[in-house]
Design goal:
Helix content is 37%, strand content 20%. The longest helix is centred in the N-terminal third of the chain and has 21 residues. It has a 7-stranded mixed sheet with strand order 14-17-18-13-12-19-20, sandwiched between helices. Strands 9-8-7-10-11-21 form a 6-stranded mixed sheet, with helices on both faces. It has a 3-stranded antiparallel sheet with strand order 5-6-22. The structure holds nicotinamide-adenine-dinucleotide. The site of nicotinamide-adenine-dinucleotide has 29 residues, from helix 8 and helix 9.
């Protein structure tokens, strides 16, 4: 059994993990979880794991190779034969148990998530809540999954069966490690599928812990398998003929590769990809709420949120006031040690990613934007951490690189507009279509704009509130399929139709 209680004993003072974790040597751990047991990957390559807030190396992890993926898929296929025959109530009991264990260990899990992802503790606690909410919600839905009965002509009837798809290959991104894992694993298991999950190589820790919690909750061995690795391991999952469905969260370019590979065996695919969402603030908006909404839409998780509204369109009549208010708010953000309770913004995920985000800020400056913040930051006591100042770009135009491309960092671009028609045209002028928002006190306009914005998730007078009961997913190149809500079940099940004949079979060919 993986020593979860040890894993959570990270020292928040000296940041030393191995010596303070009482025997847990991260570098020596087996990071895969196959058929109910931790094991090491057998690949010839490996990747290094760094703690974002310190820059210190936590571990070297072996990539899973074809034989690891094959073992994981075989184990999932074998267990599918029994797990798919559990009743919804039987599955629900196990998922509910998992929800309870996640609640009980939420503090420990949150601390681990802080080490792994660099996000502040308050946010990691929020993520863990969304994780147990997800298991409890899909535990509730599991016994409700059913088909239909239909009366046909005469005494005949037909029915539909909603049944699991088989083995789900799930691939995650790094910005919400446990939440992304649960959004895939909970509905897949609730529907009777078994799973092979590959977390991001940047945030691999809690996936294995989650697998162990599910085992403790009563999940049969093999129903959930974890393989660690980079893109190549992801490709092995997408290619594997024993995998029936792929659910992927990540960038648009990787999503295209995933979809191309999965197409070779016509796997079902759900893609949750990137975004460059718009937030439209009209002249009649409650300005304080609009500023709060724009802050939530840009600085949550250091701006590393797929549905963040990074293009903030502000009506020209309130533009300067809005910019002043956001500048005031930026000064209040406390960037620092993510383990501290008063830190509101932590570290970016990696040095490479930090440099990429800083590069976008520089490109905006070069193209004429006025930049507030946006510099690399040294946090006292954490000299190696990947910190930066939250940033606002003012005087932006639609064609700037930083306005068009997904930055995935704490960078808000502010754009002026004059009319509703004009702003809708500009807001939708992107290949992304994940989310969007509008602030106005005119409710008719709020609903009209929400209907016209080309995004899968919209907010009227708020931003970045989430609930597992509601479907989540994108339009256009932000992906397809839906996670969460009852809609998710449709993406983890197949529908069969059965015709039942009660009488004789009619045919025009019979002579008698
Ligand atoms: P990424 O595309 O680089 O990687 C995502 C996952 O895919 C990782 O596990 C990675 O190892 C794996 N991978 C890489 N190459 C692969 C390949 N060729 N085949 C199969 N798998 C491969 O994305 P990232 O940097 O981890 O995450 C950031 C991106 O994810 C952003 O674009 C963000 O918007 C998006 N995202 C979307 C959502 C959503 O729900 N729509 C949520 C979170 C993040």
């Amino acid at each position: 059994m993986f020593p979860l209680k040890n894993l959570t004993k990270f020292c928040t003072k000296c940041r030393c993990i191995s010596s303070h974790a009482e025997g847990l040597k991260l570098s020596e751990q087996s990071w895969n979880f196959i058929n109910g047991t931790r094991c090491a990957g057998a690949g010839e390559t490996s990747f290094q794991l760094f703690e974002p807030s310190t820059g210190s190396k936590l571990s070297t992890i072996t990539d899973s190779n074809a034989s690891d993926v094959d073992n994981a898929v075989s184990s999932a296929r074998k267990t599918f034969k029994t797990w798919s025959r559990f009743s919804g109530m039987e599955r629900a009991e196990i998922l509910r148990n998992a929800g309870r264990l996640l609640r009980e260990r939420s503090q420990d899990l949150a601390k681990t998530e802080v080490v792994d992802a660099g996000k502040p503790l308050w946010e990691a606690e929020w993520d863990i809540q969304t994780t147990y909410d997800c298991f409890e919600y899909f535990a509730g839905l599991s016994p409700t999954i059913s088909g239909q009965h239909l009366k046909m002509s005469g005494e005949n009837w037909a029915y539909t069966i909603r049944q699991p798809i088989g083995v789900v290959g799930a691939i995650g991104a790094w910005n919400f490690p446990l939440q992304i894992a649960s959004w895939k694993i909970a509905p897949a298991l609730a529907s009777g599928n078994t799973v092979v999950f590959k977390p991001s190589p940047l945030t691999p820790i809690n996936a294995v812990v989650l697998a162990e919690i599910l085992k403790e909750a009563g999940l049969p061995d093999g129903a959930l398998n974890i393989v660690q690795g980079q893109g190549e391991t992801g490709q092995l999952i997408c290619k594997h003929p024993g995998v029936n469905k792929i659910t992927f969260t990540g960038s648009v370019p990787t999503g295209k590769l995933v979809s191309q590979t999965a197409a070779e065996t016509l796997k079902r695919v759900t893609l949750e990809l990137g975004g460059k969402s718009p937030l439209i603030i009209f002249e009649d908006a409650d300005l304080k709420n609009a500023v709060n909404g724009a802050m939530m839409a840009n600085y949550l998780t250091q701006g590393q949120v797929c549905n963040n509204a990074t293009r903030v369109f502000v009506h020209e009549s309130i533009h300067d006031q809005f910019v002043q208010l956001v500048s005031d708010e930026l000064k209040k953000i406390k960037v620092g040690d993510p383990h501290s309770n008063d830190t509101t913004m932590g570290a970016l995920i990696s040095e490479d990613h930090l440099n990429k985000v800083l590069g976008y800020v520089q490109s905006a400056a070069d193209e004429g934007a006025q930049v507030t913040g946006g510099k690399k930051l040294q946090v006292s006591g954490l000299p190696g951490g990947y910190f930066m100042e939250p940033c606002m770009l003012v005087g932006c135009t639609d064609n700037m690189k930083a306005v068009k491309e997904e930055i995935f960092g704490p960078v808000m671009s502010v754009l002026k507009f004059s009319t509703e028609e004009e702003v809708l045209e500009r807001a939708n002028n992107t290949h992304f279509g994940l989310a969007g928002g509008v602030f106005t006190q005119n409710l008719a306009r709020g609903h009209r704009v929400a209907a016209a914005l080309e995004g899968g998730v919209l907010w009227v007078n708020n931003y970045n509130t989430f609930s597992v009961e509601l479907p989540f997913g994108g339009l256009k190149q932000s992906g397809y399929g839906r996670e969460n809500g009852m809609a998710a079940i449709e993406h983890y099940t197949e529908l069969k139709t059965v015709y039942v004949e009660s009488g004789d079979v009619w045919t025009p060919y019979s002579t008698t």
